[in-house]
Write a structure and sequence with these properties.
Layout (H helix, E strand, L loop, with lengths): L2 H16 L32 E7 L8 E8 L8 E11 L1 H7 L4 H8 L15 E9 L10 E5 L12 E5 L3 E3 L6 H4 L3 H14 L4 H6 L9 E5 L4 H12 L3 E6 L4 H6 L4 E4 L3 H5 L9 E4 L17 E4 L4 H32 L2 E4 L6 H12 L7 E6 L3 H10 L5 E5 L7
Parallel strand pairs: 8-9, 8-11, 9-10, 11-12, 12-13, 14-15
Antiparallel strand pairs: 1-2, 3-4, 3-6, 3-15, 4-5, 5-7
Family: Belongs to the zinc-containing alcohol dehydrogenase family. Quinone oxidoreductase subfamily.
Keywords: Mitochondrion, Oxidoreductase, Transit peptide
Pfam families: ADH_N (PF08240), ADH_zinc_N_2 (PF13602)
Length: 413
């Protein structure tokens, strides 16, 4: 990213910070927070009956299904690699809104329920956080009291829209000091989605790019569709840090912002003449669909590509509609049909990209933040009591970065 581009991001950051309360001293845990003995299973603490605040879901539906409670049980760590985190800030992502409506319920419920246990609710949504490590299993090396950032696996029934969350140790790491709590809570889910799409699905950096934090992809050419959203803004910065030529699309009023992220060419997707400009740079090594167009749109593109990677796959939706068996067959059929059209008309493959809580991906993103090559953009922030408003904002769409939710300033610290 150019110096001018990074300075522009810093200016945006300052504007956001002026409208947010600043965080100060580390939060004090209501738990004893002792690390479990290496010869014992992680015990229930003496205060295991203590409660926490959180937003629960008892039925799938619209935003009015979110129910606040201050009498929820604090999660207990149950294995040697688990960590209990007191959350300071979290975020609302498109996947949260989709899961609120029941997206992925068929498969994810199979993954989260114990054998013979068909209990699906209550659920707590939320996929990423920044907070304080208050308890760990015996196999965790991160010190207690550390400020950490992390993600919650999709199959977890207790997410980060509560005061505490328990996650495997590979899902978190010490938070970069370069970011405040809200910024740290707005990087990992979208960042790991972008990283996984580029380096695991797209193989941008070869085998090392997918299995290590080395990145890669210099001198490749990538088109980012939807460059102004949470995933798109981080994808552009990731690519530019690796010396990739980046082109991006967005709406007219976001063009300058996306250009300041370092994109080499930014076009308004509502301008047909500007979109034709993209044909001059084809074929693209990767077209990264962060705009929700889906693989079916790949063959309709006016430009050629080697890979078209979309995060809007029909995989979970097909299983929701037709069950595990028939849904899986439908997924295979859809992918084959889409690729036949894509290869025939545009010469490239369509692939499905997914969020992956890979520790090497977290390490890669942390390195970029520390090198000041990656800075999250925050569209808006809300207090914990306003979480339904954050969902309403997500529902309206056309975001310019991430939606964050602050817990700590309402926790009595």
């Amino acid at each position: 990213m150019t110096a001018a581009g990074f300075n522009s991001i810093l200016c945006l950051r300052q504007l956001v910070r002026q409208n947010r309360r600043q965080f100060s001293a580390p939060a004090q845990s209501v738990l004893s927070g002792s690390q479990t003995n290496g010869h014992e299973s992680p015990p229930s603490t003496a205060k295991s009956a203590d409660k926490m605040r959180g937003w629960q879901l008892h039925n799938y539906g619209d935003i009015d299904e979110l129910q606040f409670s201050d009498m929820l049980k604090i999660p207990q760590i149950r294995s040697s690699n688990e960590c209990l985190v007191r959350i300071r800030s979290t975020a609302v992502n498109p996947i949260d809104l989709a899961m609120l409506r029941g997206y992925g319920a068929t498969l994810l419920n199979k993954m989260r329920c114990q054998p013979g246990d068909g209990i699906e609710f209550p659920l707590i949504l939320g996929r990423e956080f920044c907070g304080e490590l208050v308890q760990t299993g015996m196999g965790v090396s991160v010190p207690l009291g550390s400020r950490v950032w992390g993600v919650v696996p999709l199959q977890a029934s207790v997410g980060s829209h509560a005061e505490y969350v328990a996650v495997p140790s590979y899902c978190l790491a010490p938070a970069p000091k370069e970011l405040d709590d809200c910024e740290a809570a707005s990087v990992l889910y979208a960042g790991l989605t972008a990283w996984s799409g580029l380096y695991i699905t797209g193989g941008l950096g070869g085998p090392c790019g997918a299995t290590t934090a080395s990145g890669g992809g210099a001198h490749k050419r990538v088109l980012v569709l939807g460059g102004s959203g949470g995933v798109g803004t981080l994808a552009i910065q990731i690519l530019k840090s690796q010396k990739v030529q980046v082109l991006a699309t967005c709406s007219e009023n976001a063009v300058e912002m996306v250009r300041n992220l370092g994109a080499d060419l930014v076009v308004d997707y509502n301008n047909p003449k500007a979109m034709e400009e993209l044909c001059k740079y084809a074929p693209y090594d990767i077209v990264l669909d962060c705009a929700g167009q889906g693989g079916q749109k790949a063959a309709e593109s006016k430009f050629d590509f080697r890979q078209y990677i979309t995060f809007s796959s029909p995989l979970l939706a097909n299983i929701d509609k037709q069950g595990l068996g028939v849904g899986a067959l439908k997924n295979v059929f859809d992918l084959v049909q889409t690729n036949v059209r894509s290869v025939t008309q545009r010469g490239g493959l369509v692939k499905w990209g997914f969020f992956s809580p890979a520790p090497q991906g977290i390490q890669f993103l942390q390195k970029l933040v520390e090198q000041r090559k990656l800075m999250p953009l925050i569209d808006s922030s809300y207090g914990f009591s306003e979480l339904p408003k954050a969902f309403e904002k997500m529902k309206c769409g056309h975001l310019r970065g991430k939606i964050v939710v602050k817990l700590r300033d309402e926790s009595g610290d």
